[in-house]
Amino acid sequence: MKLGVSKKLIGVPGIGLTLFLVLAIFSYINLNSFSSIQKRNDELAKKENLITDLQRFIHKILMPPNDYLITGDKKERENFAHLVTEAASTFEKIRLSGGRTSEEIAIADEVEKRFIELQQKAMVLLSTENPVGNKEAAMLMEEMDAFAESVVSKVEKFHDLIKRELDVHNERISKISTWSYRIFISLTFVALVGMVLMILIVTRGVVRPILELEKGAKIIGQGNLEYRIKIETGDEIERLGEEFNNMAQFLKEKINEVKEYSEKLKRTNLQMEQNILHLYTLYNISKTLATTLEMEKLLKQVVENVSQALKLHRINVMLINNDRTEMYIISGIGMNKKAMEIRCKVGEGVYGWTVLTGHAEVINDVSKHSRFKPIQGLDDDIGYLICAPFKGRDQVIGVINAYRLGREEPFDKASFDLLTAVATQVGITLENVRLFEETKTLSITDSMTSLYNYRYFMECLNEEFERAKRYKRPLSLIMIDIDFFKQYNDAHGHPKGDELLRNIAEIFKKTMRKSDTVARYGGEEFTVILPETGKEMAFTMAERLRKEVEANDFECAETQPSGRLTISLGVASYSEESESFEEVIKRADNALYRAKEEGRNRACM
């Protein structure tokens, strides 16, 4: 007869539970029996201890009368009373102990009765006055000793009775232990046999078919749809195996459709991921371009984003120089310092051709391209190349070049589209950067002399003053005025006067240090900020400026009162007493005024 899986699985635990209940019931009965016997055994042991105590009291109760007979000390009466109290307590405990037989009761009553008689005799002796040497008292003591021996004999008989009963109980415990051990061994053996049978039933009827089912499912899951599961148990597992076989056949029929759909989905997902990555790259680049007006930082972000998106071996950005004859690399990744110094001629090679045509180009086999001329240090080991030009002011101003090695994948249309889109944005942004720089320069520059204007001078002096004040560093200021400039302007006209201002401005720029700030203060007045410069060095610099101007042959200078064009200078330095940079300006202006008052063409501090 074939059983179902549920009956096998329920039957096996059922047998196990039955065996467990049998062992549990047996253990419960055995424990109760042992508990009852042990309780009786404890009672008998307690009785034996009480009888032993009683024997000890009988011997001890004779001691106070005997000592009284010898010494006559009345304290022995108190000792006797204490022993009698303890003996009475022991008799009470014997009476209260449970499980006494009629024989035990009779012997206990007789012992207690004789003990009372012995107690009375002792009390008579203890009540005798002057017992020492009293013959009657001595005879009474001998009578008490003899009577005590008879009481002890009865107590020993009581002790032997209890001991015999205790031995019987011990023998019963031994027999029950042996019987229980044998039954336990037998039940354990039956349980072990039952467990073995249960394991065999579960193994043959459930475990092996499930393992076969697992094996078949694994083989089918690995793609071997020709495999068929063979289970003959006549139960649910066999039917499950048949369903697996039907499923394998169905999967075999549908596998080609799934493969085709998977390939199509894979291509679609790959294209979608690529498009998302490109859009994200364009977004990041657009965000960078919209928020950054520093060219080097901007181009660095562009090459990093494009290189990551297209998985490039190398990328660089080339700009065209002002005379549009060469291209130089301004930013790049994957190149050494020497490669960053390479120059390419406009019109030569693939890079120069891209600039001339203004059209982007993808080369997926550089070895077969006629215009590709490899440049050492730049085109080493490359196999694929995209050149995307970018424009500003309607003309090409640079090229973005992307490289991959020959062993890597060629560029696809999406990569080409991304790079051209980036190039367009870069061109627009660089034009915006150029306009921003021009606007920024115009806002701080004097249009006539190309020196810094008054507003920038005030901002710069304020910053330098605060820095000098905070860090206790030297700072000086030179105020300059062209001597008799109004007379020169009136005599030769404003165009000549403007030209003179520009010429003097050039002398100032060439003479002063790069760290100095030269500005037009207003009209024919100029000023120079000298950071980290003390008063003496500032005066030396002022004298150098004065001599440079005096030595220069300006047009129409002979019409000036001294026959040469000269300047007057006032020098002032920052001191800890200076409250503000305006005070430094005032002191420099006062020094300039003194230079004029003392005859011009001189520097004063």
Automatic annotation (TrEMBL):
Q: Does the keyword Membrane apply?
A: yes
- Superkingdom is Bacteria
Any Pfam family: HAMP
| Residue intervals passing through the bilayer | 12-31, 179-202
**Stretches assigned to the GGDEF domain:** 473-605
One biological process term in Gene Ontology: negative regulation of bacterial-type flagellum-dependent cell motility
| GO cellular component entries | plasma membrane
Q: Does the keyword Secreted apply?
A: no
Task: Identify the keywords attached in UniProt to this record, alphabetized.
Answer: Coiled coil, Membrane, Transmembrane, Transmembrane helix
Domain named HAMP: residues = 204-256
Gene Ontology MF terms: diguanylate cyclase activity
- Where does this protein have coiled-coil stretches? 248-275
Output the PANTHER family linked to this UniProt entry.
DIGUANYLATE CYCLASE DGCM-RELATED, REGULATORY COMPONENTS OF SENSORY TRANSDUCTION SYSTEM
NCBIfam families assigned:
GGDEF (TIGR00254)
Report what the protein is called.
Diguanylate cyclase
Name the species this protein comes from.
Candidatus Schekmanbacteria bacterium GWA2_38_11
Q: What is the lineage of its organism?
A: Bacteria, Candidatus Schekmaniibacteriota
